[in-house]
């Protein structure tokens, strides 16, 4: 592999390492892959076994999805996991998917080089690497990314090729790959299949008689692969993509997740996907210049027609049109190669080449910034990781028969990074052998106000309060604090700790005299002689115990993350992993609306910051079972 081409897999892996956790959209595939790796595929008592241990029966999602992708990921990942250990299984599974998409992109680059020239291939590679979304999502376990590899190879097969005798066979293979992607992974690829076939027919590159046999055979083959396999795993006769199409399109169920204006893909999604500010001008130039017009229009027409037709669907997401990015980038690369070739003869071409180079560097910088920000969007995964570290360092319980600590995971954590791989880093079949579990997880939902009040009561926290306004007296004992002033260089917690707390709209502003505390006194400050919180303890140090029965006072702060309860963390000592959140310097205000399991006697709450600072472990007093 040449150094420039190696940027594609290297960049995908870099994005994977920078953001190793997953979001709710990826949950089906990642959870299904875990279950296949850990529990295998049963041959006896199939229905009972699936309902007992497989996650998709407990959390089936809005529509059923195909198991073809998870089975392939598990099969390829299993020997690699056996070598490196199950604690790295999630990274390995995502890495396998990322390398699959990297291989598809490398093949596209190879076809660009062979059909459009070396210069165009180089421009296409650097433009692709500097695009954030494709590199970031290439390793994410979305059905779209399984389809993306197939559509990318399909598009590559339609690029110009020196051997014209093989053109008909390349077209048949291209159409067959689109059929497989549409039937098995994402039904919207059928639109791309339609626009591609229409373009081929309109330009007389093929005939209906040549396309129809391959279309029928590949459709039947895809159905034979998907329907029996998915019927087995879902334990009902099923073609998942037909079900998803009926729910999302015919019934309009996709609109429940939000709608966007008809022009969203053209005015928002595609500019963000291409990211390069010069891309629209390069694409237009390639389509209009006589030297590149014919080839560029064959690249642009199917992609833009697909996006235009798909814009009729009210629910829109950028990942739905990923398949259009490689061909559009190829058209832009073709125009960039043309200006580069003429740079030696024309000052205007030299200026255009320099502008394109600067645009690529700017898009690479923007992609790096987007990666840094996007890696902060997984508080659930961060919380679970920190809780696992606490559990690993906790002393063994005195009673060997004592149950494992019970972890209650809230909705925010579930949708921002908590996966079965993170819950079960040892890869043990914990649902078949509960005693083997190091931690027990509960995801019971209670979204009512009463459920939240019960949670906060169990955590020994006061109910939520609204944010305090500037100049308002502090809640609690009602006394005004005189002489409270933040010293230069003091932390944000330098304030009186007693009597509740407030969260002003500008928490970083310097507190004025005689206006009382300006920030909350959440668990964790070491109380000084004058009653002020003077900073966080070091990692693992004990915090100040509040008065008996008082618990930690967090005022208007809300709980975010995972609550860990009971077990070897101490019979009477709840533990708090509390950390400051933020890019905006404000606290997270998503309430944990879960009800903890009955009989809980001690808890850990992980509040994950966006600054990735080290966790602070504090101990609080406790008054017995909740």
TrEMBL record:
Kindly list the GO molecular function terms attached to this UniProt entry.
dol-P-Man:Man(7)GlcNAc(2)-PP-Dol alpha-1,6-mannosyltransferase activity
Region (Disordered) spans which residues? 466-489
**Any idea which UniProt keywords this protein has?**
Endoplasmic reticulum, Glycosyltransferase, Membrane, Signal, Transferase, Transmembrane, Transmembrane helix
Enzyme category, top tier: transferase
An annotated GO cellular component: endoplasmic reticulum membrane
Q: Which one GO biological process term can you cite for this protein? A: protein N-linked glycosylation
Residue ranges of the TM segments: 145-161, 173-198, 210-229, 351-373
> Which Enzyme Commission number(s) are on file for it?
2.4.1.-
> What reactions does this protein catalyze?
an alpha-D-Man-(1->2)-alpha-D-Man-(1->2)-alpha-D-Man-(1->3)-[alpha-D-Man-(1->2)-alpha-D-Man-(1->3)-alpha-D-Man-(1->6)]-beta-D-Man-(1->4)-beta-D-GlcNAc-(1->4)-alpha-D-GlcNAc-diphospho-di-trans,poly-cis-dolichol + a di-trans,poly-cis-dolichyl beta-D-mannosyl phosphate = an alpha-D-Man-(1->2)-alpha-D-Man-(1->2)-alpha-D-Man-(1->3)-[alpha-D-Man-(1->2)-alpha-D-Man-(1->3)-[alpha-D-Man-(1->6)]-alpha-D-Man-(1->6)]-beta-D-Man-(1->4)-beta-D-GlcNAc-(1->4)-alpha-D-GlcNAc-diphospho-di-trans,poly-cis-dolichol + a di-trans,poly-cis-dolichyl phosphate + H(+)
Q: How does it sit in the membrane?
A: Multi-pass membrane protein
Q: Which compartments is it annotated to reside in?
A: Endoplasmic reticulum membrane
Fetch the InterPro entries from UniProt: GPI_mannosylTrfase
Give the signal sequence positions.
Answer: 1-19
UniProt pathway annotation: Protein modification; protein glycosylation
Taking the first listed entry, what is the main subcellular location of this protein, grouped into a coarse class?
endoplasmic reticulum
What family is reported? Belongs to the glycosyltransferase 22 family.
Q: What does this protein do?
A: Mannosyltransferase that operates in the biosynthetic pathway of dolichol-linked oligosaccharides, the glycan precursors employed in protein asparagine (N)-glycosylation. The assembly of dolichol-linked oligosaccharides begins on the cytosolic side of the endoplasmic reticulum membrane and finishes in its lumen. The sequential addition of sugars to dolichol pyrophosphate produces dolichol-linked oligosaccharides containing fourteen sugars, including two GlcNAcs, nine mannoses and three glucoses.
**What PANTHER family is this protein classified in?**
DOL-P-MAN:MAN(7)GLCNAC(2)-PP-DOL ALPHA-1,6-MANNOSYLTRANSFERASE, GLYCOSYLTRANSFERASE
In its UniProt entry, what is this protein called?
A: Mannosyltransferase
Q: Which organism is it from?
A: Verticillium dahliae (strain VdLs.17 / ATCC MYA-4575 / FGSC 10137) (Verticillium wilt)
Taxonomy of origin reads: Eukaryota, Fungi, Dikarya, Ascomycota, Pezizomycotina
């Amino acid at each position: 592999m040449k150094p420039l081409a190696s940027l594609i897999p290297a960049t995908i892996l870099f994005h994977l390492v920078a953001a190793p956790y997953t979001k709710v959209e990826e949950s089906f595939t990642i959870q299904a892959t875990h279950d296949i790796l850990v529990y295998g595929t049963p041959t006896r008592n199939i229905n009972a076994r699936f309902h007992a241990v497989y996650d998709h029966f407990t959390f089936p999602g809005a529509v059923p999805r195909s198991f073809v992708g998870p089975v392939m990921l598990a099969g390829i990942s299993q020997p690699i996991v056996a070598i490196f250990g199950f604690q790295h299984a999630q990274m390995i599974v995502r890495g396998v998917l990322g390398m699959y998409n990297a291989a598809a992109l490398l093949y596209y680059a190879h076809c660009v080089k062979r059909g459009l020239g070396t210069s165009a291939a180089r421009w296409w590679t650097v433009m692709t690497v500097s695009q954030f979304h494709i590199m970031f999502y290439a390793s994410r376990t979305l059905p779209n990314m399984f389809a993306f590899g197939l559509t990318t190879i399909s598009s590559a097969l339609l690029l110009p090729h020196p051997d014209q005798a093989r053109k008909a066979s390349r077209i048949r293979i291209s159409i067959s790959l689109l059929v497989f992607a549409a039937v098995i992974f994402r039904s919207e690829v059928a639109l791309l299949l339609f626009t591609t076939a229409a373009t081929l027919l309109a330009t007389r590159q093929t005939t209906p008689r040549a396309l129809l046999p391959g279309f029928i055979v590949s459709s039947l083959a895809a159905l034979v692969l998907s329907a029996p396999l998915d019927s087995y795993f879902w334990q009902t006769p099923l073609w998942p993509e037909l079900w998803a199409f009926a729910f999302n399109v015919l019934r309009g169920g996709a609109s429940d997740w939000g709608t966007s204006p008809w022009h969203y893909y053209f005015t928002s999604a595609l500019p963000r996907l291409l990211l390069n500010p010069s891309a629209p001008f390069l694409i237009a130039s390639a389509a209009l210049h006589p030297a590149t017009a014919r080839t560029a229009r064959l690249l642009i027409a199917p992609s833009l027609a697909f996006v235009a037709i798909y814009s009729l669907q009210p629910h829109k997401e950028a990942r739905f049109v990923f398949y259009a990015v490689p061909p559009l980038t190829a058209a832009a690369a073709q125009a960039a190669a043309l200006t580069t070739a003429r740079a030696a003869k024309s000052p205007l071409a030299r200026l255009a080449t320099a502008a394109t180079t600067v645009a690529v560097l700017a898009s690479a910088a923007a992609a790096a910034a987007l990666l840094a920000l996007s890696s902060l969007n997984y508080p659930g995964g961060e919380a679970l990781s920190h809780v696992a570290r606490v559990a690993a360092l906790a002393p063994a319980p005195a009673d060997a028969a004592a149950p494992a600590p019970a972890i209650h995971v809230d909705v925010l954590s579930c949708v921002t990074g908590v996966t079965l791989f993170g819950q079960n880093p040892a890869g043990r079949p914990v649902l078949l052998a509960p005693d083997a579990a190091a931690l027990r997880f509960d995801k019971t939902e209670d979204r009512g106000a009463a459920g939240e009040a019960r949670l906060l009561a169990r955590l020994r926290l006061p109910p939520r309060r609204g944010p305090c306004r500037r100049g308002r007296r502090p809640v609690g004992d009602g006394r005004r604090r005189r002489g409270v002033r933040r010293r230069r260089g003091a932390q944000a917690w330098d304030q009186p700790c007693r009597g509740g707390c407030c969260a002003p709209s500008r928490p970083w502003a310097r507190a004025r005299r005689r206006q009382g505390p300006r920030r909350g006194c959440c668990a964790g400050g070491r109380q000084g002689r004058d009653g002020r919180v003077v900073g966080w303890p070091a990692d693992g140090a004990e915090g100040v115990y509040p008065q008996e029965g008082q618990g930690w006072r967090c005022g208007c702060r809300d709980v975010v993350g995972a609550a860990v309860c009971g077990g070897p963390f101490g019979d009477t000592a709840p533990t708090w992993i509390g950390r400051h959140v933020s890019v905006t310097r404000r606290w997270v205000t998503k309430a944990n609306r879960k009800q903890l399991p009955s009989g809980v006697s001690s808890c850990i709450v992980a509040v994950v910051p966006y600054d990735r600072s080290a966790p602070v472990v504090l101990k609080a007093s406790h008054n017995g079972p909740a």
